[in-house]
Specification:
Elements: H1 7-17, E1 22-24, E2 30-33, E3 39-47, E4 50-56, H2 59-62, H3 66-74, E5 81-83, E6 92-98, H4 106-125, H5 156-163, E7 167-169, E8 175-178, E9 187-192, E10 198-207, H6 212-228, E11 233-239, E12 242-250, H7 257-280, H8 284-294
Antiparallel strand pairs: 1-2, 2-3, 3-4, 4-6, 5-6, 7-8, 8-9, 9-10, 10-12, 11-12
Amino acid sequence: MTVTMAPRTAMCRAAIAALPCVAAGDGAAFLLGLHGGRRARLRLGVTDGWADLTVELGGSAGRTNPWDALALNAVAGGAARLILRPGDAAVALRADVPFAADGDPAPRLASACEDLRRFAIALETGAVGPIADAGESSTPDARPVSSPNHDGGVDIAALLTEAGWPFVQRASNRIAVDLGLPDQFQQAFITPGAGERHRVRATLAVVGTPAAATRNALGVLLLTVSAVVRTARGGRINQDGESTLFFESPLDDAPAASDVDVALCAVAMACQMAGLEARALIDERIAEAYLAARGWAA
């Protein structure tokens, strides 16, 4: 029997197979070249106008503690993020690539694969940065939005207007967007990220010195939501003895209004799924019950 591959899937597979850092793997998988000649399994899924790329991490990288993984996500660049798929006991890397209406997916796929490769190598070599110090130099919402002329002509305010999102231009030149959640007030801020790319980020909760059960439960929750909501990246940063938990979604160097809309919708969905739950998990007893239900040790 001959199985016919969908044209879009075939186009994505051909684009990925042509990358110098990718080799053919067993079955439908690819092998992504890493540090020192090592390789990791790279899987492609194509559905609903998206290409989902997942890297299966081995060794100590795959055994990264969920709480530590949130700190690593906070310093991640590009589209890559650590996730925890429901039912899994090990973290993986994921990047999601949307399809343009009639565009060639190859450039975005190549960029996503490089983001995944860079993150995987950093995890293997320990070059991501000290976990405890990740992001200590700034709060999630501290960096101002660059002016249109400073970042290659990106006018975030105009893109928000085109996409239909109400926003407030703060005195410090930050842009705040009300995510419009039905049962909680939640704002997102659009700020420059690594390499002057913009990102949409919303603070979920701020915790002081949480118990081990709370740390593990919050890590499992945010990483699981990061696995089921495309482009949403759960993370945390430390400052003044407190951990700020957030969801963010990155934007390309030259985003369109549709890209801004997708990023805001992803962050809104992630906050809706985890906002109230994250605050509840600060209670150690609730965190222990949550971990037991998920099959994790406290």
